[in-house]
């Protein structure tokens, strides 16, 4: 794998790291398996694509975040007001977004941006060939820092408490329904921003690009946690999510530059995800077997 492929993988890893950050907020902080991710990622992507094609590339980011937050808001309301199970609420929103995403692109499934100015083309003009990598790194750094700062506020602490013990939070005069809705809205807003960045980085928007985002994001989280051993508190967890996403993309790029071929991308991704998610359980099993052998020796 040459340097150019490595840098491209790192750039995409930084863009996709926002998915991992959003899932960290919903999955780790709120303890909710939110399947809205695939839909909100694509919604942010097509919203930014439409704005960029209309000549408003930077407004597209704000529109994407707002659209993603609205999707998370719908999922949160389904969960808290209508008592729909979290997984089912995410599936309902994600299913509805399939049609909405097509509407945003005017009924098309694909829209090119090759002749449009984007954040990445502007960054390359100013900083050279690696301007895109710098833009992706800046976006990941900004989102990571803002997320850490937010989780240290009173509202952020309420979100963390909601995920730890909803009954205790309710007894402490904090409305867990409100914190859940806010948390899901912010998480999906971050995820939608990732989709917006990807659209401008690749130079096109496609309604199929969000497939499997929730699995890839969770794999990135697990990879980052394994590498960092969950050290450093909230800041460490956020950094681990970004690092895990970059490592995931580098591993995928390495596999594709081997003799596996691009047609096996989904299989490679599935193997990486399965290995990342099962790794903690495998290590725990190995440690348990070692302790059992040592105990049998002393018996």
From TrEMBL:
GO terms for cellular component: plasma membrane. Coiled coil: none annotated. It comes from the Bacteria. It is found in: Cell membrane. Keywords: Cell membrane, Membrane, Transmembrane, Transmembrane helix. InterPro entries: ABC_transp_permease. It is a multi-pass membrane protein. The chain crosses the membrane at residues 6-27, 61-82, 87-107, 127-152, 173-197, 209-227, 234-255, 267-284. One of its GO terms (molecular function) is transmembrane transporter activity. This is ABC transporter permease. It comes from Candidatus Ruthenibacterium merdavium.
